[in-house]
Amino acid sequence: MAEAEWYVVHTYSGYENKVKANIEKTIENRHLQDQILEVSVPVEEAVELKNGVKKKVQRKVFPGYVLLHMEMNEDTWYVVRNTRGVTGFVGPGSKPVPLSETEMVNLGFKKEAELSYDFEVGDTVTVTSGAWENTQAVIRAINPHKQTVSINVDLFGRETPVEISFSDIRVEN
Q1: What angle do CA 138, 127, 154 make, to 5 degrees?
Q2: CA distance 126 to 12
């Protein structure tokens, strides 16, 4: 059994939700739940201004495209390719190309593994490498996405905020 990966399907513009519904119905009818795991039409919240009135709307992030998390085999390829409104898979010729994990994270559809750390704002740390090596400071902020902490260091007699990587600090007890 192949491993499930993310693929992109091109659809007629405006048919994204119909394609999603049709694929989901086919998955149920043909019992393909273990091969086609997820069908997604990415949307985002947006505010539109019409006649001087602000209105919240849901806008498609990639108009004309549907994302599928599936195992690629002849059955799943056939089902998706022959769904009404689908013009084809994204990839060279007729060969679908899966999205990489990095692409999925960059698109915001997969979260990176939760990083655990054993410090918090207010803890005292020692910088273990770089320009501020052996400097002791108190953590002022933590940015888990960039994997950095903000500390204040003494620079020319003034407290100056500096970002330091998680890997370059040691927590003091």
Answers
A1: 60
A2: 57
78-134 pLDDT, tens per residue? 999 999 999 999 988 778 899 887 787 777 665 545 567 788 899 999 999 888 899
Residues, the chain, total?
Answer: 173
Q: 151-158: long-range contacts (C-beta < 8 A, 24 or more apart)? A: 151/125, 151/127
> Could you give the strand order of the β-sheet that contains 86-89, starting from the edge strand earlier in sequence?
36-40, 65-70, 5-11, 86-89
Structural domain of residue 60, as residue ranges? 5-107
The answer to whether 133 and 151 have CB atoms below 8 angstroms apart is no
Predicted pLDDT at 57: 87
If asked whether residues 142 and 74 sit together in one domain, one would say no
- Report, as an integer, the average pLDDT of 36-41: 91
* pTM listed for this prediction: 0.60
The sheet with strand 124-127 has its strands ordered as 158-165, 148-155, 136-143, 124-127, 169-171
**Strand, helix or coil for residue 82:** coil
One domain for residues 89 and 163:
no
pLDDT of residue 101: 77
